[in-house]
Amino acid sequence: DTGVSQNPRHKITKRGQNVTFRCDPISEHNRLYWYRQTLGQGPEFLTYFQNEAQLEKSRLLSDRFSAERPKGSFSTLEIQRTEQGDSAMYLCASSLAGQGARGYTFGSGTRLTVV
Amino acid sequence: AQTVTQSQPEMSVQEAETVTLSCTYDTSESDYYLFWYKQPPSRQMILVIRQEAYKQQNATENRFSVNFQKAAKSFSLKISDSQLGDAAMYFCAYRYDKLIFGTGTRLQVFP
User: Fold this and answer.
1) pLDDT at A61
2) B95, B100, B101: residue with CB nearest A100
């Protein structure tokens, strides 16, 4: 098991462009989470899935953001019409439902820079 | 709403000394989990230590231990025999249904 994998590691995009990030969780984990982290801050919750169902979305997730986990395995996070305020590190994490004591396993993140 | 507060933006410690990082949280739940995560400059979050709220005994992992005061909603992290590799951002986190993080404490370790 190689842990949680996120691609790309870095993305630079022009304002107004669409971007998509991918997260591959630990294979046996049925829960997958997306967080956003700006410099000097703690990660902020965006959304999470249990299998393919999106169970919760934060108010931070505007209508320009969409996340999917079509087969309950990998997930994608798409940002449409990017704005400079979207520049951040986007973290993915996974866990197994019912094993809350184990916390989450995080990926290395995708750093988005909007110019 | 659940919140996590870390009131120390930065802390420093000399190598081999002990340092304590503070964390308070707010919740109306009685059964939850608390965590300390470490985030080195490489940015991958690493779980340092965990505590189940129903356990009165404070968790310990090698040089890392916590002081969990449930009534006071306090969860501090003590790092003993600090090492240069302990330098990182440390995040306190609360979990009932999802992880909620504090704003972090940057720990510097001086030789």
Assistant:
1) 86
2) B95
